[in-house]
Protein 1
Amino acid sequence: MSDPVRSCDIQIRVRYAEVDQAGALHHSRYWVYFEMGRTELLRAQGLCYRDLEQQGVFFVIAKCSARFRSAAHYDDLLTLTTRVTKTGQARIDHVYELNRASASGSPELLTTAETTLACVNRRGKIIPIPQGVRTPT
Amino acid sequence: MSDPVRSCDIQIRVRYAEVDQAGALHHSRYWVYFEMGRTELLRAQGLCYRDLEQQGVFFVIAKCSARFRSAAHYDDLLTLTTRVTKTGQARIDHVYELNRASASGSPELLTTAETTLACVNRRGKIIPIPQGVRTPT
Amino acid sequence: MSDPVRSCDIQIRVRYAEVDQAGALHHSRYWVYFEMGRTELLRAQGLCYRDLEQQGVFFVIAKCSARFRSAAHYDDLLTLTTRVTKTGQARIDHVYELNRASASGSPELLTTAETTLACVNRRGKIIPIPQGVRTPT
Amino acid sequence: MSDPVRSCDIQIRVRYAEVDQAGALHHSRYWVYFEMGRTELLRAQGLCYRDLEQQGVFFVIAKCSARFRSAAHYDDLLTLTTRVTKTGQARIDHVYELNRASASGSPELLTTAETTLACVNRRGKIIPIPQGVRTPT
């Protein structure tokens, strides 16, 4: 039996509208990227977050933190690594690493972050994470 | 009987995250401002768009156009004028003028725009605009 | 001599944060997509908008219009076609078509739009479009 | 001599475009609000962040964290409290509390957050915080 998929990499091109007047990817946009990472990690596990919501299963951010080391810039091509670190009854923890490809070939680490998601129903009440989501095979 | 409210002015402070690396309010954000103008125009008419949606009445943008004359900048204090120009069975037309207060006191016109909204139900089907919304008193 | 590249297609996955509470891609986000289309059209022509800005050549939106036919939804995979329709001394006109792949295979046209860009320098003054940008080969 | 201003409250109306399809203020938008809080706290201290940037003084987010307790919704009227907790040679720490006015009159705490800003110059190099910004009077 194969191990569940616990990590995935996606590439993201920084958009013009995401960068502020200091020339840096605005810190609010990283959370949009991390959400894309979670969507694609689920897809790699054979799940679709859109379908989960239609079935009444929602994941909401309960807490988050980030450390910004270097700025990303317009048109940068970034690699986001999204990894599940812990799955509880009703919560999932992820960590994120955002890297920029450099001319030398070795990636430059720009940002690290962590989130804790809570699983809730349509009314925002905490519910157990459905079995298929907890231990994908 | 008093005339219905057809126009309203709101003040908007340009946020840091709304400005691009050329130092200009990004053109995508104007539509967010215009939407705020419509929300406040409805409120001045004694209506609340949040309540309308809860009653199953949605307004969606069918078409829009804008002309950008001068850029708005971070921390500018703008005045948005929102005006209803035409109300049909299932559509409402608005025009918008966005001005910046200048040191001389006379406002500087930055942007003009027009939108046509369609009234739809929860499933996106065109429906007649409810009477209270069409001719507010 | 080969014809200049006048059109390009890109694929865009609708992000969760781009969709509003009515479940539709918010109309303000389309302009972000169209800007991505222009960036990639330039790249297909061998140019990089980031470099142009560093050389003091900026393109700003002078006017725009759009017609929204059907809503795009979260996780939809869209194809954006960006096409140059006219190049003047200091302006470029583009048209955009945004389609969604459908189960039947034939794409569904969601949105059409047009923009006119003005070429300006760092201070916002209109300047002639550099020769290499006007007629790419 | 009066104490420096260390805290300020601002009111924010949640915009339609800021809310996601689950009906909640998207977690990425809170950082935009917190940035507004910092801008207004500086203004209450007699400073203008726009002017600071023009003088070559930039504040960038080095790290941040947030805890989300309850969701904010479209058209909610929120009160954001922004407070300086620590000022170092080249960094400033803030805490944030976001409350919603409730029908009963007592505010409902939605979110708490913390940020650490680093003071940098135009090239992103850490610099000492200018004296007037460190201890406003």
Protein 2
Amino acid sequence: MTTPLRLGIAGLGTVGAEVVRILARSPDMIGARAGRPLQVVAVSARSRDKDRGVDLSPYDWEDDPVALARRTDIDVFVELMGGSDGPAKAATEAALERGAHIVTANKAMLAHHGQALAEAAEAKSAVLRFEAAVAGGIPVVKALTEGLAGNEITRVMGVMNGTCNYILTRMETAGLPYETVFQEANALGYLEADPSLDVGGIDAGHKLSLLASIAFGTRVAFDQMQLEGIERISIEDIRQAADMGYRIKLLGVAQRTADGLEQRMMPCLVPASSPLGQLEGGTNMVVLEGDAVGQIVLRGAGAGAGPTASAVLSDLIDVAREFRLPVFGQAAQTLADAPPSQSATPAPYYLRMSLQDKPGALASVAAALGNAGVSINRMRQYSHDDNAAPVLIVTHACARSDLDAALQALPDTGVVEGDPVALRIEEI
Amino acid sequence: MTTPLRLGIAGLGTVGAEVVRILARSPDMIGARAGRPLQVVAVSARSRDKDRGVDLSPYDWEDDPVALARRTDIDVFVELMGGSDGPAKAATEAALERGAHIVTANKAMLAHHGQALAEAAEAKSAVLRFEAAVAGGIPVVKALTEGLAGNEITRVMGVMNGTCNYILTRMETAGLPYETVFQEANALGYLEADPSLDVGGIDAGHKLSLLASIAFGTRVAFDQMQLEGIERISIEDIRQAADMGYRIKLLGVAQRTADGLEQRMMPCLVPASSPLGQLEGGTNMVVLEGDAVGQIVLRGAGAGAGPTASAVLSDLIDVAREFRLPVFGQAAQTLADAPPSQSATPAPYYLRMSLQDKPGALASVAAALGNAGVSINRMRQYSHDDNAAPVLIVTHACARSDLDAALQALPDTGVVEGDPVALRIEEI
């Protein structure tokens, strides 16, 4: 089969430019693996004049990505613009309308419109692939849809936002407060234009919602995810956690429970000696658990031009090889509606609070927890110079609802200053 | 597409029985993912009467795997018998002769006959898949042939024999000598009938040779691998390595060098804090490095019925989905002959030897190393009660040929007792 696979690439940021560069540099290697040449026909981006360090003269230029998507001389529309709506969605829909294949890195678009886009693609027997949307260069979508396809998946976990992991790692190693490291990361260009996408856990949540859909055969349900960012993590929490043998990670967990689908993306304590605990800087890690395979751990760069381009190329080569797969691993029409689980799987929790220095203060906190059904595993009170004593509690495994009841009862004790910090401990 | 994919399964050990069990238990899940039913038509094994804990009555029985392979009512011949030659090879060839697809877990057969079998399969437009042959449930063949297909692979590393890793881990944690742990492992049934397949590094070497072929587009060249087992590793080496921040692993490394392809499977020291260093027990880990993606680490169970069956099912579902891929990722006819690299990439080495307790002994050893171009980074001499002093040396990075020259010169010093132990240090 030597008919070239003809590509239209929309979006020439670092990733798009890198895809063009690799295709121009290694046509023989990629052609040998794909079984046919991959040929860029036309490209589109906001500015035609910008120097991207790659020669665009061999390719047609389209100012409008929708016009690019509509060109009948391209087989695959490669969407690397980003954004959940706007031009990315309009162009993707236009390409699907005429039955072109889609390769995209756009997690936000798929988290919000994945079901509709998948149905549109499958109605036209087109493929829509998104390896680059989740965990950068780690072939995790492929591992779930194909590599572990013989398994009932029991749990998916992941640290999938490199910026958050960078911030948390840097806070620990440099002993710096959140705000300082956040500013550093911003200055280094690590943060999205809207930083809450990163530090609010939204970007990582988008990714988890896509993996959950594949893993559990359910419709993408990003709006049902429990989402909590890292903005409230203090250097004290990081130190205390380390002192007890834990690290704090923005950890995503998706699993089926008795009453539905649990999806959480929130800061958690994980054992410092575990693979997730040892993950540093911008590296991503995904943990997949299946009934036959047990636990599979995948680790690699979660972002960056090279790793993301690697994932885009993998998808393109699969399209060239005529691999035809439903978008989320099984026909979109057959994906189930999973009701959100009403309660998180029980777990131990880490609590940090300031207690007023009066007799009986600790006892009344312990009583408030006990009354809510939360029992204490470990407790430490630290020496202090002012009127408020830092107190640290690790509970036994308890239901989140019981913990919430306990947290609501704490102000009534009259001995707790401010809002306690409560973080889930994930023993993995 | 609702035409079932019809399977003939040869070999009903723990893996074969588990594949049958999962197909019987989860036909709907697997059918939904594969896009069509997977139907076992006939099976074959040595003994028909053995209780395998799975109901075989729905399937035809064939005493002869070659007869099973020749049945025209099966689309895929699933070879789970093992053995590089004999019935496994005869049956696989018979199936390929009539253009049936092959799914196999047989690393030995592919390490020895992979090129011929791949050419036979591709001549008939049949696929031959072997995910289960390498690193159990870890989808590493898929990661290399597909997930990282856009990369020039620069290096492949792996700990891929769970038994060796179990033995080395257990020696360290229990402080037991090799021979004792070897007997334990044998009693637990962890070892192959011919234990040298495990502890001699052959089984892991088979696996590495397959990954190297995919990674570098070269013909499988198991016979050109530098192979060294763990039989000579002593508890002293493990302790000394730990004392210097290293762990000893049976580590495979494949990489291109200026003059060819380097393939090594041998005990190495790796940093105790690295992902490879932290790998315990029977778990496998594969590290893949590509020019675009950087480093990808995959970790999971390397053996066992469930993980291996998971890999077999992944291959079967891919066949059902009509994924057509050359056996080693590109047409077998295009695979290059890679000359074995004449020299290993330079590395530091760990040396342990016994020195006679005479004046100038250490100096003459240092001189012998220096004369061969091997310079010393760290050296320790331990206190001792008898006439021979244990001495430990860590060299600076040097060529293996220089090290070998130094080792050959050591007896001439007249101060070294017995054979020194030399282990490569892989800084990863």
Protein 3
Amino acid sequence: MTSAAPRIKVGIVGGTGYTGVELLRLLSQHPNAQLTAITSRKEDGMPVADMFPNLRGRVDLRFQTPETAGLEQCDVVFFATPHGVAMSQAQNLLQHGVRIIDLAADFRLQDTQVFQQWYKMPHACPDILKQSVYGLVELNRQKIAGAQVVGNPGCYPTTMLLGLAPLLEGGRKLVDTTHIIADCKSGVSGAGRKAEVSTLFSEASDNFKAYGVAGHRHHPEVAEQLQILAGQPVGLTFVPHLVPMIRGMFSTIYARILPEALDTDFQALYEQRYGTEEFVDVMPAGSLPETRSVRASNHLRIALHRPGGGDQLVILVAQDNLVKGASGQAVQNMNLMFGLPESAGLTQVAVLP
Amino acid sequence: MTSAAPRIKVGIVGGTGYTGVELLRLLSQHPNAQLTAITSRKEDGMPVADMFPNLRGRVDLRFQTPETAGLEQCDVVFFATPHGVAMSQAQNLLQHGVRIIDLAADFRLQDTQVFQQWYKMPHACPDILKQSVYGLVELNRQKIAGAQVVGNPGCYPTTMLLGLAPLLEGGRKLVDTTHIIADCKSGVSGAGRKAEVSTLFSEASDNFKAYGVAGHRHHPEVAEQLQILAGQPVGLTFVPHLVPMIRGMFSTIYARILPEALDTDFQALYEQRYGTEEFVDVMPAGSLPETRSVRASNHLRIALHRPGGGDQLVILVAQDNLVKGASGQAVQNMNLMFGLPESAGLTQVAVLP
Amino acid sequence: MTSAAPRIKVGIVGGTGYTGVELLRLLSQHPNAQLTAITSRKEDGMPVADMFPNLRGRVDLRFQTPETAGLEQCDVVFFATPHGVAMSQAQNLLQHGVRIIDLAADFRLQDTQVFQQWYKMPHACPDILKQSVYGLVELNRQKIAGAQVVGNPGCYPTTMLLGLAPLLEGGRKLVDTTHIIADCKSGVSGAGRKAEVSTLFSEASDNFKAYGVAGHRHHPEVAEQLQILAGQPVGLTFVPHLVPMIRGMFSTIYARILPEALDTDFQALYEQRYGTEEFVDVMPAGSLPETRSVRASNHLRIALHRPGGGDQLVILVAQDNLVKGASGQAVQNMNLMFGLPESAGLTQVAVLP
Amino acid sequence: MTSAAPRIKVGIVGGTGYTGVELLRLLSQHPNAQLTAITSRKEDGMPVADMFPNLRGRVDLRFQTPETAGLEQCDVVFFATPHGVAMSQAQNLLQHGVRIIDLAADFRLQDTQVFQQWYKMPHACPDILKQSVYGLVELNRQKIAGAQVVGNPGCYPTTMLLGLAPLLEGGRKLVDTTHIIADCKSGVSGAGRKAEVSTLFSEASDNFKAYGVAGHRHHPEVAEQLQILAGQPVGLTFVPHLVPMIRGMFSTIYARILPEALDTDFQALYEQRYGTEEFVDVMPAGSLPETRSVRASNHLRIALHRPGGGDQLVILVAQDNLVKGASGQAVQNMNLMFGLPESAGLTQVAVLP
């Protein structure tokens, strides 16, 4: 960290949730970022370190109202808000030359009808949406570098898209794309920092369950991106589950190999695809990734299996839902947008045990 | 469980919390109880098994409003409600000959001024309070058997009082009663089934903290009972802590042995005091009780230590906060009040692992 | 529990693991069982309650060596041992008229070559194996009632077989049986009470991972039983995962509905199949079972989903791996074998929270 | 991190435990350290990243035997070994000019008789022991800066000593030093990465217990240091407990204020004592520190309470047992010994949630 490094002025809207505190953790240690403002109408005046005691002595900011925070003077503003907030403030910020990274869903779905169906509100700025970029770096690096507005991917989609991309890109015909299954498991922090009975310790601990089987908001997001990747609609069954752990996401993806593709060296395919990626680790064939191996880090690990050597491909994907699945990926996007090294501020080694 | 056994008609007011579902679990398996009504104004009409899926196929009741539940026809009504509810309904039920067991604080404190100070409301029925009995069976067995209204003890007080009673009863001068320390630890279910950020899984898991150091509502309750036991005020420092486990309570109690009592055989004293108690287990000297050894059971275990053979007595007490610390003790009280075997419906072996 | 009830003399071989302590918990509360002997060569002389403190005051037995335990005088002996022990002692016990329930794998696989391949030892008594019965009550009730030797199913197979039976029985052609997927998740107690680094609290807590993807011993067991059910080989991909919870097992099963079966009322099919089963709960369509809803109980819950109304059937199955997945099922088998009510000793309500 | 910074060549002996992996995590991110060698006779040849998957892509070292590791060429060697190893190798390393930081107990106790009593072995190098320094930076900064051998404090002692130092230093007569109580709670990682039944997930999760009440090895260590601080023996009752969390340590310390010291401003005393300390945070009076607020960071937080304004002082101390309680403190010592900024490599913000 050298004093001569340029500092990007960063604002955060709505930093009272888990993606907010994770942004604060990462950005307060980022060599090229200067935390400038954080807003919360409800907590106006409160030091953020009073809400998030891990920041005591490290982050001096107080929550401010959006009106007084001076977000227009920032270089970039992260929205760690409920869905619908970023799109209502985007126009104004863009006019002031502020770049936007939204961690909610406002800029994830290009299809505004689908957006309205799932988020129960019309899209407020379809024009801006059209120019926005889906912020999955490993798929959209070039576009992100030039973007003014980035829609940061959902946590589940990140695992599914990176887990499936090598199979679908470039019109490859390797697996049956009509019936892909993604059995996904998330730590409880994915549900956010909202006071709800279902995520109380006494409800979620020592328990396992599926949820959202009938439909989850991340499904249309993945479907849209998979279609872009494959050049055609992809049939996906996506079942999320809740795991009694704080952080971590694990997706077990099942794809049936097409008869003509049975000789494919999938391991080589994945290694080649992600060989230069700093944050995607294709583990040796047959490996068993663990979520703790990426706890608090921006790495995502992939391992391929083909049980019995048959036609069923099993792809295991592990990430920290709050880092690569949210705030770390957002910082990675910021780095790209500002011409910084992609890993700036994201070099922490995962915490184990 | 024989069909000829007399059945007590039981009503539960406010069974949507953890003491409520624990009452339902215990009473639905009780050979002499007949669950008759359960009230929740908010959940009127909902099957209790929809809220508490462990009861599916075992409890057919639906929540009803207090007006329609017919509580006056019950033999006994348990209040698993916030503080203040039981005292507002006690008069009416008593007039109908219904006995009352309150799991909140309305009938725990004889000093109505102290009650008002801690619970921020005047006591609604001081006359009934005077005739009510503090429902700690091992201390008040006789009185409970004849009581119309029982104030079921708080979870922390149960451990502290049973842990200290043998030292203080009968005017014994064994320990310095001016500076007793109770360092207590509770599982998160003790905080109840309220939607609050501080008890979310992501906040309470993988964490440890003290709380209520400046003052906790159970302090005046213990103080009053200790004074009754000792015949004089007892100086107690009580510090509660939150443990990332669902159930379980552990109190480490420190008492300084008086010089003239250094030769006391404390182990024998405790064994003698609790020798005939079914639910208090004085373990061999030097034992290390674990909360899991009483998980889901009504047993409380005590072990005595005297590190280095000196004058510091360390008393370890473990219980399940929802059973002996709440609903199990309430059932134990019911058994006494209705002349049943004290352990009726309370014979389940603790669940381990 | 009436004193006149007949008492079955029960022996347990190797009760130092989790299935052992769970058998002790269940049998010590069983109205018709009399715990007679428990063996452990290593712990000879130790009171079982010293190893399992939940049994203090409830089980007085001490571990004995097999030689001194008098197992031949028992009516039934449970083997809660490593694979290979039951088959070495079966002959002798059977000659004394003792019935056998093995919780390990010795009597699960009829194909002795497959047994040898997975368990690295030849089968010691193929003749006895041939007469033994696979102890999944809901599939083999009649045979179990007359069996001398029962191979108690593995925990994973129980969920997969009960989850799939209605689709496969009777030669039904409802789903594509060449590519069924079972994504299964188990609590850590499934790994047993062995001192191993990988299941230490600091390794398994706050973590999620798959294991045994390349092959798991329960796979041949399920395959054999599925073939019996379907009358033909069934193609199954089975991926087990480890969940940071003590008890509980959850299987998410994916089956593709055949075009000609798209109109099937699967919910009705399952409800009809299991309508009279006391321990299998087919929940209303679209339900979301949770493992905690069966914690410490013998119930298994199933819920059916058909996301988007398409051709992908998703079957959710939850059980307690130590009860319905092991010791509870073993007691259910014992009840059948001795003409007792199937639920004798298995009526405890699940513990929640 | 500038390339021009001097690099200290670091060796680690026995890095297969939790203090080992934590050293690797911290040192691999340290701007002035160069991980040079790590030894494990048992794991000779294994990449450390295979044992600790969080290090994949970050640490390339392989375990080596002590003979081949070239420890004599290091600038400093950390011993993350069982007790007794460091003292057997110290002489040789010192002769080669290598400095030593031992994370075990070999250089914690100056009294070799006490050492032998607790660790069941004679001390191998009393001469080196005499010149070694107890590595609690905030108490011994000067001495550590000039030390060749540092005995890194135990985790419990760190909390007790820093929690009590301001009360005892300089011959202050503020509290009754004959009866101080330290009720301490540790996460399970404190028990190390040894395969033992008692720290299995299924044993330690959802449970709470005390242990070592009759005597714990950290007791003589604290006693010796407290005597140095106070200039006289201090009477301490120390009771450790096991908390179902991976990391974190919390000590609740009770000291009775002497009558003549009742007017002391303890808050000011502590703030003054630790005002310039980077890693000791005296929180505002009445604060409630949480272990998660220091998870994976080198900070230790202290909060003072005086319940009811009486004569009982309650000191709450929270740290991460693996960082400030072990490996972080060891790096802090290294920084001092080599003239680096004390916080070099220790600036990570705590991970929350």
